[in-house]
Design goal:
242 residues, alpha/beta, six-stranded mixed sheet, 9 helices, 38% helix, globular
């Protein structure tokens, strides 16, 4: 579903990604962990071309994202992305936020967009909140609206960049619950997060990144309980102390 090869990313003199290869199979949930500044979020942003790699190739669901002829708007409909900040329009209702791209990008009529939008909000447990504006919702509810907005376009892949790090601890569970149900429905997912319990329980594969490279990868049990690389061991022991 995702084939990224030899991804380098430089910002001026700063070399953030140093030749990362990442293949993700259909229906796989891949979790990316690692210290701050290791390149995790930059890698995720390269997968939907929010960042353009300095070198390398990215193919998602058969679409070459770096080909200048690729229609990025069309391609991004297949690649849902959920950020740390919810990025909702404050003046629009939950339903309005979810249906905007359906109407503007996917060209749906208002009636069709509203029907899809209501179904997406129901999937994330917010059917009753369709007419609420973001300011009337908790952080966890706002993040679930952001997930509904992404899944309304029926993407083939979902990318999550620290989706729970801006939330109060008691609100995290509702967002992870939605992610778990997406996982069970067969969505292909790549998640950058510090939610190690979720990674251990739900991931097919965990990648440990450090200094712009994938240092180690494997099933959660291997990475969390028997990491091979000294840098992975150091990181895991540090997070387990907290």
């Amino acid at each position: 579903m995702i084939q990224a090869k030899g991804i380098h990313k430089q910002f001026g003199a700063l070399h953030v990604l140093k030749g990362v290869d990442l293949d993700v199979a259909e229906r796989e949930l891949v979790f990316i962990i690692g210290p701050s500044g290791s390149g995790k979020s930059t890698m995720l942003r390269c997968l939907n071309r929010l960042e353009v790699p300095t070198a390398g190739s990215v193919v998602v669901d058969g679409i070459d994202l770096l080909d200048p002829r690729t229609d990025l708007n069309h391609a991004r409909q297949r690649i849902g992305m959920v950020f740390q900040s919810f990025n909702l329009y404050p003046h629009m209702t939950a339903l309005g936020n979810v249906t905007l791209a359906l109407r503007k990008v996917a060209g749906k009529s208002r009636a069709e967009a509203d029907e899809i939008g209501h179904a997406a909000l129901a999937r994330v447990g917010l059917a009753e909140r369709a007419d609420h504006r973001p300011g009337q919702l908790s952080g966890g509810q706002q993040q679930r609206v952001a997930i509904a907005r992404a899944i309304a376009l029926e993407p083939r892949v979902m990318l999550f960049d620290e989706p729970t790090s801006a939330l109060d601890p008691e609100l995290v569970g509702s967002v992870l619950g939605v992610m778990r149900s997406l996982r069970e429905s067969g969505m292909t997912m790549v998640v950058v997060s510090h939610e190690m319990g979720f990674a251990r329980a739900a991931a097919d594969r965990v990648l440990f990144m450090d200094d712009g490279l994938i240092v180690e990868q494997g099933p959660p049990a291997q990475i969390f309980e028997a990491p091979v690389h000294a840098r992975t061991r150091g990181f895991i022991s540090q997070i387990q102390r907290h």
